[in-house]
Amino acid sequence: MTRVWHQSFTVLEDVGPYVEAMRRHLDARRLPDTTIDFHGMRPGTYPSAYPGTHIRYSSLSGLHKEQFVAAALQARAEDYDAFLIATIPDTGFEEIRSLVDLPVVAFGNASVAFAATLAPTVGIVNFIDALQPQLRRNMRDYGFGEIVGPIVSIGRGFTDIVSAYDDPAPLLSAFTVAARRAIADGAQVIVPGEGPLNIFLADQGVSRVDDVPVIDSLGVGLALCEVRARMYRTSGLVPSRRGFFFETPPAPVLEAAREFYRGAAE
To answer: InterPro entries recorded for this chain (predicted)?
Structure first.
């Protein structure tokens, strides 16, 4: 059996319809012996139900990394087989990857890497324009700078996506228009940016726009969790442990530092 800890950037209690769609979708994508436990941010993290009020700011996103780090350490303590960072800015990915040996898979990293197996120029179609600088920097740091081409927005917001299940046509049209803009600018495969848009498109059966494939980003992330978990069990595969971004600090030093900052915040 493979147990996957799914970590969202949303407060799941605030977005019931999205959570239901996400459970339905990933349950259909998982292998028979995989279980997925869905986790979100702590209630009250955001001033509204929409994390975009914080995710667009570097300083606030940095503060929220601690919830992802704490979740990953808990996942390790509870013997999960993989940890899925289910947000396209890959919040806390580098930090978490350096702290735990269990497989850590991140939405943006995994979906773009997979998309590049289908075509050499990947377009991202998202709904949070303010994320574009962070996505560009992430992709450069991953070595994907020359792979990712256009990043375009659908011109809709989070509430539009959540409410679109009752009337899908307008959002489907907005996505198609944006995807065609990306294709005109050179995209040969499309990654939907952020989980809510990805889940909506998959729920509506969207896998292509014209002759260009559209990736199921979270489905890819889950599949990679399953593969990485199997490789971890069978061969002990873990990330590099050399260099600033990969070395693991001694456990007592790490815990003392985290305890100090917990106390400073109280």
So the answer is: Asp/Glu/hydantoin_racemase, Hydantoin_racemase-like, Iso_Racemase_Enz_sf
Indicate whether 169 pLDDT > 70. yes
Task: Show the CA angle centred on residue 7, arms to residues 53 and 190, nearest 5°.
Answer: 75
Model pTM score: 0.94
Residue 137 reports pLDDT greater than 60 = yes
**Ordered DSSP codes for the chain:** -EEEEEE-SS-GGG-HHHHHHHHHHHHHHS-TTEEEEEE-PPTTSSSSS-THHHHT-HHHHHHHHHHHHHHHHHHHHTT-SEEEE-STT-TTHHHHHHH--S-EEEHHHHHHHHHTTT-S-EEEEES-GGGHHHHHHHHHHHT-TTTEEEEEE-S--HHHHHHTTTS-HHHHHHHHHHHHHHHHTT-SEEEE-SHHHHHHHHHTT--EETTEEB--HHHHHHHHHHHHHHHHHHH-------STTTPPPPHHHHHHHHHHHHHHH-
Q: Could you report the per-residue pLDDT of 34-84, keeping only the tens digit for each?
A: 999 999 999 988 876 566 667 777 888 888 899 999 999 999 999 999 999
Pairing relation of β-strands 82-85 and 2-7?
parallel
